[in-house]
Amino acid sequence: MKKLFLSATAIFIFSAFAFAQKGIDTQTNQIKQNGNQSNGTTRPNDAGGRAIDWGKGKTKERKMLANPYRLNARRGVLIESITDALKERKIVVDEAASRPQDGVIITQPFVFAKGAVTARNELNRYAVLPNSDTSWTRGRYTLTVEIQSIDGIQNNVSVTAKVEGRSENGLQSEWTTLQSTGAAEDEFLIKLVEAITGASPDDKTDDGSL
Description:
By secondary structure, this protein is α+β, with helices and mostly antiparallel strands. It has 2 domains: 38 residues; 133 residues, Kinase associated domain 1, KA1 (TATA-Binding Protein, 2-Layer Sandwich). Helix content is 37%, strand content 25%. It is built from 4 helices and 7 strands. Strands 1, 2, 3, 4, 5, 6 and 7 form a 7-stranded antiparallel β-sheet that branches. Helix 2 crosses helix 4.
């Protein structure tokens, strides 16, 4: 009789413990579900869950403009727009070297970086720097803009940048011609396209029209 009583007591205690544990597990799961819903971390495979966005709709980086770039404008209008765009960027036209009648505009060297602190970073944007410990102190570029006529209205406009960096070694300093990254050319073409078309190249649709 005593053994039967002990067995019944053990079964009762075990059942009570299991019931309590089940209640805790149910409560814990409910708390986790509520937390996931409030934090927006629902898994994609949860019932009624929201799929995780892995970058869909992310802003795409704009590619550089074609160079040469085709524009619908007469040569005279293009020459004037090129000159105005250069003035806006405070770049001086080299009157002696330019040949507007031939559709060639050449600028004086434009200094875009001064000082050892910022020169390397700015140069790295406009030019391909050699792998060396050169101490760059200045950066400049010279633009050559050429207009090539296709017909009476359509023209190809090409922009070439001669990028130079000045380095110092003790008491000596010199300008070194560097390979352009195309950034200086692209920046000017964007300004020119905006001046001619009245719209930014970033506003182009997928078919290339403005």
